[in-house]
Amino acid sequence: MTLHHWDVKEDPPENLVAQYHIIHIRNFALVLPHHEAAERVLGHLVKLLRPGGYLQWAETDVSSFRIEKTNPANKTAALEKLLKLSQGQDVRLRTQWAPALPQIFAAHGLENVLSDVREAPPFLALAKHECNLLIHELIARKTLNADVARELKELMGEFVQETRAGSCFAFTRWSVVGRKPGGE
Asked: Cα dist. 75→130, 154, 167, 178 in Å?
């Protein structure tokens, strides 16, 4: 095994072109906030594939960000406010390109494109929600807007209570696979 350092936003170095039978990437939505960036990165990844090679991209559909409840009576005001504040601070929390991955794959010449679209099963919803809460804490620490930072920190106790009562963030998850033509 050899480790290479390469910025996926740049063209791949020649020594990596057509070297891989399988490429799997995931969770780039927070790295690639715009549709065009996702398209460009996919083009770079296709260059890495050998003819007949497969690319799989697993991604969270940030545009599906929503709040779910175990009981219709559960409160969600703090989670709703947290979502609105956080999305206003970081464009990466408003990406919308994940559902377009199958079309982006096809546009880059990949064939036999398959998509698997899933919601988190109920037994994983809380665990995934708690992982996502780290994003909001990071925003509170990193924002240059002191008022937003203060408000996010103040909300933390409230959304923890809402979470314990059974309210949580949820996302749709996409997994898309395609094959580079050739190499029978």
From this structure: 17, 17, 7, 42
